[in-house]
Amino acid sequence: MSRSVQVVWDDRLISYDFGPGHPLAPVRVELTMALARELGVLDKVTVTGCVPATDDELALVHARDYIAAVRRVSASGAPDVFHGLGTPDNPAFAGVHEASALVAGATLAAARAVWTGEAEHALNVAGGLHHAMPGTASGFCVYNDPAVGIAWMLEQGARRIAYVDVDVHHGDGVQAMFYDDPRVLTISLHESPRTLFPGTGFPSETGAEGTAVNVALPAGCGDAGWLRAFHAVVPPLLREFAPDVLVTQHGCDSHALDPLAHLMLSLDGQRRAYAELHALAHETAGGRWLATGGGGYELVQVVPRAWTHLIAEAAGDPIEPATETPPSWRAFATERTGELPPLSMTDGRDPEFHDLSRGYDPGDSIDRAIMATRKAIFPSHGLDPEP
C-alpha cells in the first residue's frame, strides 16, 4: 500500500526536555525509536535526519517578537511568562529555542519529503506540538510544528490540506492558526472541553466555510464510541474536501492508562485509527501523508507501542498485535525508567463499533456529540447531517 516511507529522526530531538518530573518526558520518544528498531520496523523505512527550522520558517505561523523572546529565554534560561515560558506547563530552560526549532525542522523535513514526492508518507514522532500559539507557548508546546509544516506546503502551492488530530486534547493551536483559511480543514477529536485542557474545541467553533471541525467526546468514551464518532465525521469530510495532503497528529493520550485525561481507548483501538487514517490518505489525498506524534504521558506502557504501530502501519507492514516486545527492549526500558514494560504489542482488545447509519440514539452522549458536530459542519460541505 505504501510506496516509500521516511521517518525523520535525530538523537538531539530528546533535548526537548522540560526537566525532571514534567509529564512530557523525552524518554517516551527514545523508547519508541528503540522499540521500532528492535522489532525491525525501521528496516522497512528510510530514516533521515533534520536541521532546525529557521526563523523565517517559524515565522510562517509564529510572530517574530515571540521567536525573539524564545531565543532570549534559550540564551539565559530566564523565564518569560508573558510569552508562556516559565510556567508549570512550559518551564523555561537554556536551549529551548534550539530544541524546539529542531522539532519543527523534523516536521518540515517530513513535509518536504511528502510534498516533493521523495516519500509517499513521512513521520516525525517527536512532533505534534499542537497547542503552541502564534505568540505564546502553551500546553507543553513552544513552536507549533504541524502548523509550520502545513504553512510551508501552502507556500509551495498546496491548494487544500486536511489536518486530523486524534490527541485527547483539542488541537487548538493549529485550529487558531488556520481558522480563517478555507484551504486548511482542521478536524480534532478530543475529550470535551468541559472536562479537559485547553477548554476549547466545541462544535460551534467552525472556522472559515466550516473548515474547523470539532468532535468533543464525553469523558469515559472508549474504543467503540470513539471509532463510531471518527467514522461518522472524518471520512465523509475528507472525501468531500479532497486534500492535496493529509496531515495527522497522533497523540496517544486517549488511552485508558493516560494520567492526564479521561478517555478509555485501548492500544488496539488506537491502532485501528492509524489504519483508517492510512487508508484515507490513499483514498482522498493521493497517498500523501505526513504524520506526527503528540501527547501521551504513559511513557512505557503506551507511547512506545502506539507509535511503533503507527510507523509500521505507515510502512505498509502492520505489526501482529500478539507480537511480543523484545527482551532487549524491555531491559532497556527498565534501565531508563525503572518500570516493568509491557510483554506484547496489544492490550488484548478487538475493537468493534456500530456505524451511525445503523441508527442514532439521542439518549446517548456520544451520539449527541457526533450529531452536534455534523449539524454544525456538514451543511457547509454540502453533506446531509442526518445519518
Salient structural properties:
387 residues; alpha/beta; globular; HDACs; acetoin catabolism; 8-stranded parallel beta sheet; 8 strands; histone deacetylase activity; Ureohydrolase_dom_sf; Arginase, Chain A
Describe this structure in words.
- The chain has eleven helices and eight strands.
- The chain is an alpha/beta fold and 387 residues long.
- The chain has a single domain (5-51, 100-381), classed as Arginase, Chain A.
- It has an eight-stranded parallel sheet, sandwiched between helices.
- Helix 1 (27-38) links the parallel strand 1 (5-8) and strand 2 (46-48).
- The chain starts with a strand and ends in a 10-residue tail after the last helix.
- The model has no long low-confidence stretch (mean pLDDT 98).
- Belongs to the histone deacetylase family.
- Residues 22-312 form the Histone deacetylase domain.
CATH topology: Arginase, Chain A
**Which band does the percent of strand residues land in?**
5-15%
SSE sequence, one letter per element: EHEHHHEHEHEEHEHEHHH
Which CATH C-level class is it? Answer: Alpha Beta
Biggest sheet record: 8 strands, parallel
Please tell me the overall pLDDT.
Answer: 98
Helix coverage percent of residues?
25-40%
Shape: globular
Query: CATH homologous superfamily, by name?
Result: Histone deacetylase domain
What is the architecture at the second tier of CATH?
Answer: 3-Layer(aba) Sandwich
Structural class: alpha/beta
End-to-end C-alpha gap:
31 Å
Radius of gyration: 19 Å
- Count of individual beta strands: 8
Unreliable sequence segments: none
Discrete helix count: 11
How many discrete domains?
Answer: 1
The neighbouring-strand order within the major sheet is 2-1-3-8-7-4-5-6
